[in-house]
Fold each of these.
Amino acid sequence: MAKSNKDYFGLSYIVSLILTIIPITDWVCGFITRFQEGKIVAGIIRVIPIFGFIIWIADIVCMVLNGRILRLLNV
């Protein structure tokens, strides 16, 4: 898969925003996206319920303001 500046598998901003607003799809797509980027720990943190909820809220804010999901751990 080619690298893209768009989140969630290279989908458009509107589709990514819709996927971000729905909690389950945000957690699953965020988990998969982070694993594809090679960020294993960041992917695992996204599926832990309390962290997943906090990151979900942050993802919505970041997607609206920046057009990208939250990149908490970039290691």
Note: The CA atoms of residues 23 and 75 lie 25 Å apart.
Amino acid sequence: MKKLVKTIAGLAGVWAGGSYAAVQLAYKHMFGRSSLLKYSLERKFADFDEKYPGRYVRRSVKIPEKDYQLQGYVYDLAEKRRTKGLVIFSHGIFAGHQSYTTTLLDLVDRGYVVLGYDNTGCCESPGDGVNGLPQGPLDLECVLKYVDTDPELKGMPRFLFGHSWGGYSVCAVLQFYSKVKGVVSISGFDTPLEVTSEMGVSMLGKAVKVTRPMIALENRRRFGANANLSAIEGLNSCTVPAMIMHGTGDDYVNYNGAGILHHKDEVTNPNATFVPLDYPHRNGHNDFFLSASAKEYTDQIEEWFKPLKKKYKVKNRWDLPEEEQAMVFRDVDMDRCTEINLDLMEKIDGFFMSCQG
């Protein structure tokens, strides 16, 4: 019996050690640095500045975050007018805030000042990597505290808007900071542990479930008490109005899984509303930002890349040689592929305006 116990204990130790090593390797891969793509189906601010010279202005801001500073930008119209308020935008994983430039400048055109920033380890902000999903709300708390000190921003009504990782962050941060008028969360998830496990199962199969305790351990090692910050707990910690939106066909942050909207019965905040996004052929993780015609066109562009991806044996177009990407993008009509979903933006604008009273 003692021999059996020792054998089981030994196997458990090997499993635990191997699982933990695998989780650490996965974290290094998943949460490494993110860079802005040179060739993208999203315009950058410089593109808008060239297309509409003198229409927009942006101001660089440095946001203190422990031992370094996050890079942010304040976007506004050059021709000043009374603003509806300040929208603070939190971006998704593997991206930076400029991956959403079309959306952010649409809000500027609607009368908002927008503060977009890059999280730790993303694009223009420092850091060897993202570190982990709890970093999102921690960075956002620093941004909100910075706004309290900025002479031009601190007096404005402020709203939070986030997508995916950012959709999680804008809700979870409410546990630390809730001096905001309203929150729009799109494609967000409840906790880092749930979504990381869900994505692991999606990519590698159900066997990944056995690593869940190791994922929890690694999160704890990196973030301590903040290891599994919950979006639901953030929403329930206050009465800030929040609109939770999620694509019904999202299989990245699963609509019927880790998504915040799936957990709506756990939300006690009386001012939270839930909006399933079910636009025809645009109900995934982020395609609802596009108009119907833009989605059709971007699907066509992806078809152009298929033979090249097969030739070079890569999964994503951004993994292709730069010269191959350049050849394809030479023929891309950026006006067509960035045409925005006005219905979605009007919903967001209308919600923010309803929070002003």
Note: The radius of gyration is 21 Å.
Amino acid sequence: MAISKELIDGLLVTIQNLYLADDIPWMIGYSGGKDSTAAVQLVWMAIERLPVKDRKKTIHVMNTDTLVESPVVSKWVENSLEHMKKEADRGRLPFVPVRLIPDYDNTFWVNLIGRGYPYPRMKYRWCTDRLKIKPVNNFIKNKIAEHGEIILVLGTRKQESSRRNRTMSNLEKKRVRDLLSPNPTLANELVFSPMESWSDDDVWSFLMQYKNPWGYSNMDLMTMYRGATADNECPLQIDKSAPSCGKSRFGCWVCTMVEKDKSMEAMIANDSEKEWMAPLLEFRNEFGNEDGDRERRSFRRMKGTLQGNYGKLFHGPYIKEVREEWLEKLLRIQKDINENGPDEFHDLELIRLPELQAIRRIWVNEKHEFDDSLPRIYEKVMERPFTDPEWIHNDSFSEEEWEILKRTCQELYPDEELAFEMMYTLIDIENKASGVSQRKSILEDINSTITKTFYRDEEDATNFYSDMMVRKKENGGKYNEKFLDFQPIESEFDNDEDE
């Protein structure tokens, strides 16, 4: 399909007719990439041609900021949304840009550094739902509750992948109205994909032929894509052998779902002005490195339980020392970029203050690490006080008591790896249970702590778990068959893994 004036004019009329057909509000997903830019531009051009009196329905332009987006792309999107707002106000257009973020208690860093979740991978992809899907779904659900129904406009295309083609084709068969497909995950949400049959080259042809209506540069967008390809080229494809910048993928700079972040690597290699991002890439490669990752994590699951396959225990969250080391490294990278990076990134926050406050609460209140190390790490690196005005904590024990207890446990029980954790957890439980109401469950908490920490080391825990499975098998109980089948260990991650 070749992009022509007749084709675009016809599509704009189709969009206008769909917009005027009812009172259902519209939403457009906007990432700042080529497809979503083209989708917003098509709708913008269509609505702009309508009389002001017919522009009654609000059109929310939704951008999901995971808070770990590529800084270059994030800055691009931020500026683009500002242009949109100004131009929409000036032109009396119904577009309302909105930037959605995950809950600060559920961001990437809060889960990785705070809770110690293992870095995301194919069989343990905890990030997408928390960082992208939930913020959008919550916003959409609120609008559905308000209006009863919404229409979501997306720049999705069948040619993006064979999987996308199958999904869109299947939803086509279920259309309840012309051009509108149901969303299989959200009731009362209809999806409109105006570019569903376009190719990569069709998208670029449209963006190059039609000026961006909110005053941003589509040529600069192509330049950004070009810079994110290894060969620094971004031609329009005329055959399958030609490279295409449409294959570039922008996303989270922390993404470990791919072995290498080729887009960021290319940006750094192609543009000396982007070399300041190299520490980000190095840090991502460090925490996303599978070699030695088991040793960085506890041999117990997130809730302190034991589980395993083929004679080995599954490892769970990252240990305290690793989490603290990564936090310090992240803050140092941020400080260096603020001081030595490009002027436009002098206020870049790789990790936000509310995230740091959430991590502090997890470490102290949930993990019982009463030495409260986060403020010390922050002040050591950033050279300014850590701000947390709502912090309420019983300061009976601090870093000094922590170090005394640690040294005592090491001297008295040098072979007991979990003795210190057992002691500081029990002390913190008792310290926090000062009131009568707080002591209701203290016996259960003490028993739970001892149950999770009475193992000498991983070998002792493995033998304990193995003996337990053998007893269950011998007595006809339900047991972990895979654990007693001594073969090379398989992946310790599953989509339905108990966190």
Note: The CA atoms of residues 116 and 306 lie 17 Å apart.
